Amino acid sequence: MSKLTPFGEASTGAVAAVFANLLVFPLDVVASRLQIQSKALASVQAHSKPYSSQLDALVRITREEGLLQGLYAGVYLKLLKRIYVNQPRMLLPSTSAELALGAVAGALSRAITNPISVVTTRLQTSNTTPNSTSKPTSTSIINEILQTDGIVGLWRGFPASLVLTVNPALTYGLFERVKSLVVARRMKRAVGKGMDAKSVSGMLSSGDAFLVGALTKALATIVTYPYIMAKVRMQWRPPVSSEADKDPLREGNKKGLEDAIRYKSATDVLSKVWQTEGLLGWYVGLNAQLLKAVLCQGILFMTKDYFTAIALLLLK
Hints:
This protein is mainly α. Among the domains are: about 10-40 and about 50-85, no CATH class; about 155-240 and about 250-315, no CATH class. Helix content is about 70%, strand content about 0%. Helix 1 crosses helix 3 (about 55-65) and helix 9 (about 165-190) runs antiparallel to helix 10 (about 205-235). Pfam families: Mito_carr. This is Mitochondrial carrier. Keywords: Membrane, Repeat, Transmembrane, Transmembrane helix, Transport.
């Protein structure tokens, strides 16, 4: 067998996706924590010092909440979602066709997995400590959402998720195009040296796959990042009133501060952030998101061919 079936391709893709996401998951938690930070939140939670950088967040979360309960909070849900959404992809004749069909498939999968995303985001952004007696669990978070927002609360941030369906489609479309250019250049170089073009492998080396995957994912992430940030803020649980009541000095403007971090939609997020923090506010946490996305995508593309080769060997 020289080629896997679509099911086999999906399976090896899922294994590679799980492996990559497991390695970079702490960065996912850090990115989520940084994405919800704002001037208004810092005023409401005066007792909690904002994170100054990715490294500061990594160190403090590990020290204050523990490795598993802090940096790996909700990892099982994230991996479950990655397994589900990883579907076999076929190479289509044009990038526009890839984007269209990829977006449709992505919209359907995000509709199903949005509740997982909401619960995962709340687990990642719950600043509990190992000694706390009220650590949130998936069950407690779901019950809280159902009691406060009803079942529709499990689909908070879904419109933003729909916009973000273009991200993986754009990434894979760009990857295939750049990959074909790299392979074509390699073949041209081989012909120039008097070699047979057919002798040149159509696969990228691990290093090339990592670089191309990282580049294409970075471009897609930068383009869609404001909505990535908006989705996280829509799915995050803002502090309740009792948390702000602890500081009587801020009683007068407490209501306005709380309203500033409670959002009705993704566009409401973008509007409020623009008014208080400007364009830079749309890109808060971008460094952490880029590092996580680039490493994850690079590792995925780099390892998928290896997992495919192992599967072919096992099926011989």
